[in-house]
Amino acid sequence: MLEAILYEKLSGDRVRCDICQWRCVINPGKLGVCRMRCNYDGLLYLLNYAEVSSMAVDPIEKKPLFHFLPGSFVFSLGGWGCNFHCQHCQNWEISCVEQPGGSVRGSRKVSPKEAIELTRQYRCGGIAWTYNEPAIWFEYTLDSAKLAKEYGLYTVYVTNGYLTVEALDVLGPYLDAWRVDVKGFSDGFYQKLSKIYRWRGILEVAKRAKERWGMHVEVVTNIIPSMNDDEEQLAGIARWVRDELGELTPWHVTRFYPHHYLTHLPPTPIVSLETAYKIGKRAGLRFVYLGNVPGHDTENTICYSCGKLNISRFGYNTKVIGVDGSKCKFCDAELNIRQKVKKVKV
Ligand code: SF4
Fold first, then answer.
1. C-alpha distances out from residue 43 to 27, 34, 141, 158, Å
2. Pocket of ligand 1 (CB under 6 A)
């Protein structure tokens, strides 16, 4: 166990964790909402430092990140626990657990140094914390991100975006990409899907990740039939992305498949995804992508200015065809494609 960072000591040996926006006040002997931070005798400890549930070499497009080091491979690591309790969670076996390893699976210790060694050994361009919410093992991702920067590797958070501003500001110098879910655009939806009552802080933090820390940001919305497929929510997300992150920010609208507590719902009809695509385009977004629909022609990056093909994708087979730096090779239009890794003195 390691003592946590970013917490406050309160009266009566209670502590307040400031890693995510729950800001759990935890009594002695008790756990936070994520079940991975515990108050022992008035000090906050994390139970999951370097405890890995899953690791894989993935195409960066699988995160999905389409405008960030396209065609590269990323070493992906997942831990245990989550601060959300989403009804459709695909990874509930690692996120809904009471301890690292849960009751059925083993947990493997992978130190930051080992994680970086594996990233290099597998010839990946960088490392991503993904599969469960990275904030839950924040200290581990921070130590690993600092080390990754020493080796010129890129770093990615695949996140529900619920970090506090303080936590973002600690991590910000060492993080290249913020792949954030904006799951819906109403209080009722976030409450129903994820048991989150104040979700708008997610938007503020995503904007700060881009503006204050220069991160590359891409947004994902998993379209769930009858829950967030209404025009009002989708147009709300699209307009927010346009106004706060910019019209060149990629928005991925992905297909839902029945999981966990939502097995009674059907997979998202393709027509609903195409409607979301049109809503995004109508709002002025230049890059809207359908996800989990291999072979759909919206997987490609097409230049909005000259109409030529910049990047072709079929599933995870990516070919960079017409990109020069961040721009279209044919007409010089800005495409917001990040090809460089952040350099930081650690
Ligand atoms: S990281 Fe865990 S303990 Fe800390 S505020 Fe979030 S849910 Fe609570």
1. 10, 17, 21, 29
2. 17, 19-20, 22-24, 32-34, 37, 83, 135-136
**For residue 332, is it within any domain?**
no
Is the domain of 284 the same as that of 216? yes
**Per-residue confidence (pLDDT) for residue 100, from 0 to 100:** 76
| Domain harbouring 215, CATH code | 3.20.20.70
15 CA from centroid of ligand 1 (Å): 11
Closest Cα to atom 6, ligand 1: which residue?
A: 20
**In the structure, what pLDDT confidence band is assigned to residue 1 with cuts at 50, 70 and 90?**
confident
pLDDT category at 105 given cuts 50, 70, 90 is low
Nearest atom (ligand 1) to Cα of 7 = 4
In a domain, 271, yes or no: yes
Q: What secondary structure letter does DSSP report for 149?
A: H
Instruction: Provide the residue range defining the domain that includes 275.
Output: 51-298
CA of 163 to the centre of ligand 1 (A): 9
DSSP letter assigned to residue 251: E
Distance, CA of 151 to CA of 103 (rounded, Å):
36
- How far, in Å, is the centroid of ligand 1 from the Cα of 284? 36
Q: Quick check: is 142 in a domain?
A: yes
Q: Are residues 84 and 68 in the same domain?
A: yes
Kindly state whether residues 96 and 23 are assigned to the same domain.
Answer: no
Q: Is the separation of the CB atoms in 234 and 276 below 8 Å?
A: yes
Amino acid in the structure at residue 183: K
- My answer on whether 29 and 87 are in the same domain is no
Ligand 1 atom with minimal separation from the 83 CA: 7
Of ligand 1's listed atoms, the one at least distance from the Cα of 138 is: 1
Span 84-103, pLDDT tens digits: 988 888 888 888 887 777 65
Please compute the mean of the pLDDT values over residues 123-132 and round it to a whole number: 97
